[in-house]
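Weekly structure sync, notes
Attendees: PL (lead), two postdocs, one rotation student
Agenda item 3: pending single-chain targets
PL asked that the sequence for the first pending target be pasted directly into the notes so everyone works from the same version. It is reproduced below exactly as submitted, 825 residues in total.
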Amino acid sequence: MEDHSLPLILFISLILVLSECAAHDTISANQEIKDGETIVSQGEMFEMGFFSPGNSKNRYLGIWYKKISTGTVVWVANRETPITDKLGFFKVTKDGNLLILKGGGNTVAWSSNSTASGNGNAPVVEVQLLDTGNLVVWDKKKDTNRNLIWQSFDYPGDTFLPGMKFGKDFVTGIEWCMTSWKSPDDPAPGLYHDLVNTNGYPQIFGWRGKELLTRLGPWNGVGFNGFGIDIPNPIYSLEFVVNEKEIYHKYELKSSVIMRVVLTWEGKTEILHWIERIQEWLVYADASVDSCGRFALCGPYGSCSINTHPPCGCMEGFEPKNQQQWDASDWSSGCKRKKALNCGNTDGFRKIAGGVKVPDTRKSYYNVSMSLGECEMTCKRDCSCTAYASLDISNGGSGCLLWFHELMDTREYDSKQDLYLKMAASELQGQVVQHAGPNERNVLVIVFLLMSLFLLLPALAYASRKMKKRNYMKRRGNNGYVLDEKKTSLRMELLDNLQFFNLTEVERATDNFNVSNKIGEGGFGPVYKGVLEDGQEVAVKRLSETSQQGLDEFKNELTCIAKLQHRNLVKLLGYCVHEYELILIYEYMPNNSLDFFLFADKERSLMLDWPKRFVIIHGMARGILYLHQDSRLQIIHRDLKAGNILLDSNMNPKISDFGLARKFVGHDDIAKTKKVVGTYGYISPEYAVHGRFSIKSDVFSFGVLVLEIICGKKNREFTHENHGDNLLGHAWRLYKENKGTELICESLRASCIVSEVLRSIHVALLCVQHHAEDRPTMLSVVLMLVSESKLPEPKQPAFFTDEYFHGHKSFSSVDKQTITILYGR
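Predicted structure, written out during the meeting:
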């Protein structure tokens, strides 16, 4: 053993070490390594054994550099359970579990909790320290390839080595993150930790306890936005992977340079290079070294610059929200718009060309297949969208990244990633954003032509819409026969049980669609209360002139719901078709929707005590079960949300709005589409990202609804002062900490039955698990809600909110939370 490996490693004198120390390449089952013995990697780059850090006398099992850098520890096993004497030893059990034993072998100080899989053969266990610094446990069975049982790279400490993954594994639940030491003498987890946050588009955060300190901007195809050191270079290569199973960042060395990333006990994230000439580690880069490194220093819509003093200013078109605080160098309140948005096509975008670190993406949505032009149109159509950008700036740019909240943590930075900020038209002063078009020399000509046609455009658009709808939809007499462009009719046998109303009847019932009778509006159009000639109250849903929906959704609703009969489904009474008019007539629900009571105000929320909410949960479950299993058509709803759960006079729930539903036959219950439809916050991850939908998509939406009913807050809009999780992540966090009752909203505490609430939360978490195959069927859900049997343990939910919406193209809905023209990968 070389002399330079002795300091901080061995606990006895040099003479004893030289005489007693033994080294191993590998360890087999039931073999032991005592304090003073080591395991050495094949290339002798790394060494593993017991050591004492700094001035501490405690003993830890760790891995350190052997060939270079005396005493530089990169991984510690028993961080929180040190051995206080010199009698500890490391052992491998026959089934692949790693143990650190103390007290003469009678007490376990640390365990890897790993076990070789069965498959009928006894495992042949071997432990090996690789030259990457990874400690691995193999199962080397005869006549088979060796299988990995466990590896230290899955459990990083304060050091991120080449080849390590940094992120989350949604299958195993493992989170690869870095945690600082408590002090140079104590490797126990300290105050600081770095991790990949998977809410919205993934990004890397640095935390001190529960305080968010720093943020690396999202991956842009070249590196992390806002961290210039991550551009391609000859020293290392970068990889960033996002899929259903895992999200992670990894780097690999491309040269002979030795490099590591360390989160120091003081909270600095440093990239270090080993300089052989001077035999020292030098800091190659620091993640936050300037006055703009602190997260959200300048508040919403503020922008930080290291070239100005003070560093905070407002984005163009914005002004300080609180001038007095701003003047006192307190910028946390941020900035506000000088001119409000109009929420329509009159709003435009200001291009911030490659000079900004893009905002916090925890409440963003992304899609890898959309063009930048489609991204612009998506943001323009959605009133809550505030900005957009290309997702990947390599190879000319591709994909779409959308923001749906206040823009936080922006700064001036040469990022080469353009940001398009939504602004009122009057703020743009002639600025035009075009992502695909003619050369610059033609721009003046086009602008001139556009100005010439400006006064004609409204009339042309209105006429075009009228002509298109007239050509698309026709009516023959009063028999309700609907035709499309190809003259293929909607089969009348599906409508035998439905009454056809002429337009005069509908106009009389609604007082000619009087605005005073309007009771709501959705993606299809406005909904009016009406009274038929016989005195029956009805709800009349009329296709809007501006709706992106039309005949397809109208026909879909008719064919899906015409023959469905269930106490928890809203009843369709009839329909009306007259030229371009498409109208649906439903039974009237006097208590509006679940959304109306849950989220509107506290007084309405108090009207829904726990017994009523529990009945609503049961009713929703039974209604969805009928759609999936018991109905003659078998239907996937695809847009289950609080606004589509109507309440009758007795507060019983009825599922409504089948315009986006899809039928399936027999076992054909999984399908794929390029047009993803639904509502932000309720869509399952596999559907949002890949366009795959199934009955498990509805199960996911049901789970979100149950958590919203208990918490009284929307998943999409949920915030918490101590973390950035959405409602699903917050519920999961409380469940893991056995604090589920903290999820209950204040208005329920007096009436709730705690056991029922906790069971409902548990069932909801089973429904929102990341992988569709892990979620229960609705039959299982109904049984779990009413029984007292033991429930299976849920796995980590999909933190898509907004955890993560791999977002998308906007939708033909007036509902601000609803999207329709979403494209999966």
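Discussion points:
- Confidence is low (pLDDT under 50) at residues 1-21, 436-449, 468-493, 800-825.
- The longest helix spans residues 610-630.
Action: rotation student to compare against the earlier draft before next sync.
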